Amino acid sequence: MEKQIFDYIVVGAGSAGSVLANRLSSDGKYRVLVLEAGRESHPWSRIPIGFAKLIENSAANWLYSSEPDEGTGQRRIPIPRGKLLGGSSSINGMVFVRGQSHDYDSWAQLGNRGWSYREVLPIFRDMESYQGDASDEYRGRGGPLKVTESNESGAIYDALIKAAGEVGIAYTKDYNGAVQDGIGMTQTTIRGGRRMSTAVCYLDPARRRPNLTIQANALTECLLIESKRCIGVRYNVNGQPHEARANREVVVSAGSINSPQLLELSGIGQPELLKSVGIEVRHELKGVGENLRDHYSPRMKWTVPLSLGMTYNDKARGLGLCWQALKYVLTHKGCLACRRRRSVLMFAPAPGWMRRTLRSRGFRSWSARILSWRKIPASSRS
Q1: Which pLDDT tens digit goes with each residue over 337-374?
Q2: Are 344 and 186 in contact (CB under 8 A)?
Q3: Which fold has domain 1-94+189-290+367-382?
Q4: DSSP code of 335?
Q5: Backbone φ, ψ for residue 317 (5° rounding)
Q6: How far is 190 from 338, CA to CA, in rounded Å?
Q7: Can you say whether the dihedral through the CA atoms of 47, 148, 89, 357 is positive or negative?
Q8: Could you tell me the pTM of the whole model?
Q9: Range(s) of the chain covered by CATH 3.50.50.60
Q10: d(C-alpha 76, C-alpha 104), whole Å
Q11: At what angle do helices 117-127 and 101-109 cross, to 10 degrees?
């Protein structure tokens, strides 16, 4: 079995792991290994409209789902997770939303120092390069993550914004700025007609660094532990086992599902559960795999008469698709350069309603436990 030695090992090259790989290797002082279970990329990932081709594609998506329960009407709710460099930032809908400022303040009040909105705001500014009309108090202009304001216009958007105003929902120019409540056009991680995933914005600029090794199709099977200290990882590449040791740290950034999975496979978690499936307990940590918080994404659909020719489906139908493809190749504009949903609505019917609702009903706590690895099908590596 081949053994390697690095200073840092990063497990997972997704939205967090790609950033860590870039930052840890930036000064050339440390040798960094980044392991990604998925593939290098996918042809549809760079094209914004291509996310519709990836959301149910096992070649780029782990295709996880929740267990059916009473709260979902005994349905399984899909939980898309990216399976390629960039992780879910390489398959998602590219809408850029920081989140409600009072959520950060609530976390800080619960004892999480450094997590208030005012404390994380400088980090948000530093990480982004925002292209749009907004206040520099809230938005960054020189960071690695490229975010763009939608400048698309049309009768459908005008009608939606007008209708919202008629029921008291004001238009907001920048929902990631001072005021979030309202209706406005989406901000996206798209620039020049291409998806700006963390693989593009953080990994690509760092690829030529001699102290950074990026290994795709590398399934991390367990953490190596000695005397309660993680000293490395064992992983598999195309059926060949490998070991890597870390002189300094192993960083587990495999996402909200795969990170606790890896910990439990390594014997870190609830002793009773691990013993029940034949895993040797290396360290008791009862919170592993519990209390995952996520939000639902309900969607409403309306039928727009075909004769109006106003929707993407109408514009990309028949010969229109050929025109849109040619337009994208020549100008990186058109339907293929956009995501499907271009407007966003955030509102609170009464003061404090949104916060109370999200705390009492909006979030579900799910178990993030999957105790057996799915092997990556050979077809997904092609």
Answers
A1: 876 656 666 655 555 444 433 332 333 334 444 555 43
A2: yes
A3: FAD/NAD(P)-binding domain (3.50.50)
A4: G
A5: -95, 135
A6: 8
A7: negative
A8: 0.86
A9: 1-94+189-290+367-382
A10: 29
A11: 130
